Amino acid sequence: MKKPVSMIVRTKKLMDINDCQEGQVVAEDIVTSQGMLLLPKSTVLNTYILNRLQNHQVYQLYVYTTDDKKEYEITIKELMVAYDESLNSTKTILHHLVDGKKIDYQEIEQTFDKIFAKSKSPFEILKCIDELKKVDEYTYTHSFNVAIYGMLIAKWLQLPPEQVQHVITAGMLHDLGKARIPKNILNKKGKLLPEEFDCMKKHTIMGYDMSKNIPGLRHDVRQVILMHHEREDGNGYPFGIRGNKIHLYTKIISIADVYDAMTSDRVYKRKTTPFNTFREFQRIGIGHFDTKIMITFLSNIANYYIGSKVVMNTGQIGEVVYLPPQNTSMPVVRIDDSYIDLEIDKSYRIVKMHNNP
């Protein structure tokens, strides 16, 4: 088996908080003296966060050495090209599987190598996902994005590189069976009828059978194709098994699957804001998903949205400056010169991301 490809390694340094500047990126998790996560790794610093850290008596922190802005812009452009090329490779592989052709396992592994080779940060990859989602090619971009979200979760869980690679493969192939679901059901606007939903649920078993055309595919990866709709409380399908019988890879991909679906435009629904998605995860997540994996995912991915512009219910444009790791659905938003904590001030809420239709 080939050596898994990793993202570019970034150097870090310890700095006094008074010397830190806006725009620098936190290189290690920051926790309180009680062990509570205060700020996850990869958070971009701003004035609000720096003041908050000082209020919690954080005097030093590790930050990544500053990247040249021009170099960052070049990296993003190269990464977007690599993303598009890898997406096209994903389409070809899935088409071949649908046609019953056998696939070399290494073809799947190599699909993501270019992305890893160009990337310094998970947030660079997330930027590509946001900018290159295509509604009319949801089936392909969804499988591709779930593989990437799964990869990020696996890295945030600090899994070894070979297991990260297994998760990526599982994400790419998890919805393989949907190619055999009638298009009128797959793309139906509105709620499925009971008999239509029963048909849709068969995609897990169909995909599992189709994966036999990939010689060398690991059993635990094939299990993800079969069981990614199983839930911790036993209310999933196709078997209704409970959490202690669900493999780690399946638990990771089930979260990645739901997150990408909820934050993407579909033929039957408009995408929701990331913060509404975080709230929905908090509402249903305890019974549906592995709690540790869910919290790890939400607390890390939430920080991608620091600095994002949002439209408030008042019509004002705000900027997200902080997301509490314990309640990512309620960020702190700067409007003009005021900081609004949405967890405290219920008169404000985020309507949509700025520049989204």
Written description of the protein model:
- This protein is α+β, with helices and mostly antiparallel strands and 357 residues long.
- It folds into three domains: 53 residues, Molybdopterin biosynthesis moea protein, domain 2 (Alpha-Beta Complex); 203 residues, Hypothetical protein af1432; 49 residues, no CATH class.
- 46% of the residues lie in helices and 10% in strands.
- The chain has 14 helices and nine strands.
- The chain has a five-stranded antiparallel β-sheet with strand order 8-7-6-5-9. It has a two-stranded antiparallel ribbon with strand order 1-4. Strands 2-3 form a two-stranded antiparallel ribbon.
- It is globular and about 60 Å long.
- 35% of the residues are buried.
- The N terminus is likely disordered.
State the helicity in percent bands. 40-55%
**Radius of gyration based on Cα positions:** 21 Å
What is the element string, with H for helices and E for strands? Answer: EEEHEHHHHHHHHHHHHHEEEEE
Show unreliable segments: 1-7, 68-74
CATH topology grouping of the largest domain: Hypothetical protein af1432
CATH class of the largest domain reads Mainly Alpha
Q: Please state the average pLDDT score.
A: 83
User: How many β-strands, per DSSP?
Assistant: 9
The major β-sheet equals: 5 strands, antiparallel
Distance between the termini: 45 Å
Which architecture of the largest domain would the CATH scheme give at its second level? Orthogonal Bundle
